[in-house]
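Batch manifest, entry 17 of 40.
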Amino acid sequence: MNKAGHTITERQVITSAANADVKLLRSLHERKFRKQTGWFLAEGLRICTEALAQDFAPQRLVFAEGHEQDSLIAPLIAACKKQGGRVLCVKPALLERISRKDNPQMVIGAFDQKWSDIAEVTPQQDACWIALDRVRDPGNLGTIMRTADAVGAVGVILIDDCTDPFSLEAVRASMGAVFNVKIVKVTTAAFTSFASHWPAQIIGTALPASKDYRMAAWQRPSILLMGNEQSGLTDELIDVATDVIRLPMRGQSDSLNLAVATGICLYEMYRDCPE
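Output type: structure tokens
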């Protein structure tokens, strides 16, 4: 229902960018409004359906006019209404304004952010976590979440000033994994304190390391510790690692993309520690 108490149905087509819900959804592109509301945007039928499969029902659901009877959208509409959310049918041009890109997908959902606590990082059997030090690129973070989900990792630990995992760019790159992996945010001090009591492997990556990543004692449970895209891990974090490795490079490049390097390490761990 809207503020006047009228039932909103998917047949009412919203055409104005001044609509309160449209303005709210557009504001979620900015981190400060995501923090204020506790919501974030997810775009596309596949990602929104994945959210529903993980018991995330949208607080707002927007879809393009002409898809009112789409059988794949119906479960999303039902879930949104069941929890008291609002469903908006809009003109395609308005959907572009909400998504801020040309040719947007036909569905956008606003979902509750879900954060986990460092206390949830426990060394249960076969558990794997990825700790990221000051990751700045949302595409890298989203891709890492996607790869983490692919290898069955539990989640990611964001250390200090990281990009927002709930930005639309990170969510897009995660391809729905943002709903499947746990997300923890801590300071360096909190992580180093936690790491001092962690009873299993913490494998860090650093260019000065002498050990080839293929020679590491990969095992689970474990934490894979990856550094900032430009400067790598801080000395403070390198000190808490039980093993420090490097990925050899034969060409002229002096570094690998963070998401690529993380993926290589995770699949090496997966190869050495099969289910």
